[in-house]
Amino acid sequence: MSAPVLGEGILKGMVETARNFVGSYVKDDRLVTVQYPEERLPQKEAARNFPFLVYDGEDWQKGLRCVACLICEKECPPQCIYIVKDTVRKPDYVGKLQFQPKVFDIDTSVCMSCQICVEVCPFDAIKMDIEYELSTGDRFGSLLVHKAQLAKSNTYYRRIHPSEAAEVDARLGAEKAKAEAKAKAGGAGAKPA
Amino acid sequence: MHATPNDLAAEAPPKNYEIRRKPHLDGSLGGDLLEISMGPQHPSTHGVFRMDVVLDGERVVKLKPVFGYLHRNHEKIGENTTYLGSMPYTDRLDYFCSLTNNWAYALTVEKLAGLQAPERAEYIRVITAELTRLQNHTSLVGFLLQDMGAMGTPLMYAFREREKILDLFESLTGARMMCNYMRFGGCRCDLPPGWLAQAGQVVSGFPRFLDEYEALLSENEIVMARTQGVGVLPRELAINASVTGPMLRASGVNYDVRKVDQYGIYDRFSFRVPLGEHGDVYDRYMIRILEMRESLKILQQALRDIPEGPIVDPKAKLRGFRPKAGEAYGRIEAPKGELGFYVISDGSPNPYRYRVRPPSFINLTILEDMCVGQHVADVVIILGSVDIVMGEVDR
Fold this sequence. Notes:
The complex is a heterodimer.
Chain A: H1 8-26, E1 51-55, H2 60-63, H3 71-75, E2 81-85, E3 90-91, E4 97-98, E5 101-107, H4 116-120, E6 126-128, E7 144-145, H5 147-150, E8 151-153, H6 154-160, H7 162-186
Helix pairs in contact in A: 6-7
Chain B: H1 5-10, E1 17-20, E2 33-38, E3 50-56, E4 59-66, H2 74-80, H3 87-91, H4 98-113, H5 119-148, H6 153-173, E5 182-183, E6 186-187, H7 195-217, H8 221-227, H9 235-240, H10 246-250, H11 257-260, H12 281-305, E7 326-334, E8 337-345, E9 353-357, H13 359-364, H14 367-371, H15 376-386, H16 390-394
Antiparallel strand pairs in B: 1-2, 2-3, 3-4, 5-6, 7-8, 8-9
């Protein structure tokens, strides 16, 4: 086990550090540092940071997919979501009457980015954002994010998570087509779901 | 009553040391014992951990580990949230190995609820757990060398390799460290396209790094002089103190939960369990290197054999999960030792009792026996070789 000459092991190690040092000038896999604010790595598609609310159409107040069912509020492990349900149904972007959240707050100082709200949401209304430069000097005000800041368009969602969004769009489209076919078959009296 | 300047001057400043009278029994030269409080934020104590060390000159006479500074009520929180809600908290136990923590908890609840992960999910679990073992052991060896005084170089090489594995975790789970990936009866999402090829590249490139690392350190005379014969943990003591993991195997006990329990699909892979001879710090370092080589073998077989198919048991429910009343204990071979979860269900959405058996906490209880009689400088590397993470010790 031990080297025949005292110091041989140390010299061997020195050769290794020299190889890494010289190698960092010629080979990319030995120089892995990224000079962060100037250079940035592209983000992974699965990346997640804090949740946001998806809306369809143009108007965020009308197009919110969230129907204030309170499932995410109950399932959130650190209890960082606060929802107040609206008392009246309002027309959404296709004119259907829906409940909407009157208040939807996420305390991002408490949120631990676990994605459980996204998984339990049956309406694909809450998704994970990838924005990461969120530091602020205001400890209480700006870390509590309100509905207006949380609402982001489906186009934005498609841009940040392309394959996941395509899957969601396909699923929602299929459900919609099924509901329409059912409504047609049921005759004029059938209510839209 | 207000304190006058004279009162303040009379009050002794707080000390983190104390001089004790030594009983002169053996007719030695005498001198006093010095009690030092090392920590709680000493850079070599791996986090908020304190050691009350009583020294006779340079030698340790007594050592008392003091922990609890990072206590976060993990078990009580687990009893107050739903079963699924505890999953992201398990990431924060041993924050180096979130995926093995996830697996241990998922395995326990699967036992409780009678779920069975499908074939593909089992393979994904083995792959991610072995990658976790690789990155834990690389960073551990880096930290151990840092404790020995090799500032920077070995740790930076280790972190360079670890980052490649964390990149794999990020593209699979969305987070580098807080993965929150396993679910009861499977995994959260399928592998993204091209992930297996990327993982194959990392695995095939890893032996070169291990060879370089061994050339750098394994025969280094300074490393050998500092570690061989230091902090010996005898075989019987290791068994009696219920030490597990690489610590136990370095003392020569052939006990690996992957072989003993064969949980998941570990019966399908051929790998060997490396054993130490002396139970000193060098053996513990070497065991980790050898275990990484065995992990690479498992990874090669798993990446070759992984089938297509579903990744979640169809019986598994995400919302409204209520296992019927009962209890279960599940354990796996986490990189630091045997990680167990004990859950009692009373049929409600929350567990009635939720208990963690953390390997690094139990391995730490043996610290005094390894340190007594050693130099105070060696206490630091003995602690380093135990491989503790305070998130898991204090919970």
